[in-house]
Design brief:
Elements lengths: L3 E5 L16 E5 L4 E4 L1 E2 L1 H4 L16 E2 L2 H7 L7
Antiparallel strand pairs: 1-2, 2-3, 4-5
């Protein structure tokens, strides 16, 4: 498994998470992939996937807050 290189965006506590109970986060990995910490919403969203989308048994649908992604936007590479 690849290693975390950097966080994208700002730390959860800078987005208002003080309890640690809801801390979505995004990380860039050394192999160029991204890791996401979010709420597992597979059970509620799996049946809503469009016909051209699929999920392997080992994959999960993860939800992050809008603010998490917006705050990370500037750190996401264009290519």
């Amino acid at each position: 498994m690849s290693q975390i290189v950097r966080r994208l965006g700002v730390a959860p506590h800078l987005r208002g998470s003080v309890s640690g109970g809801t801390c979505p986060d995004l990380f860039e990995l050394a192999d160029g992939n991204f890791a996401v910490i979010g709420t597992d919403a597979t059970d509620s969203l799996d049946s809503q996937l469009p016909p051209d989308a699929a999920r392997a048994d080992y994959e999960r649908i993860v939800v992050i807050t809008r603010e998490t992604l917006i705050r990370a936007k500037g750190d996401i590479p264009d290519a």
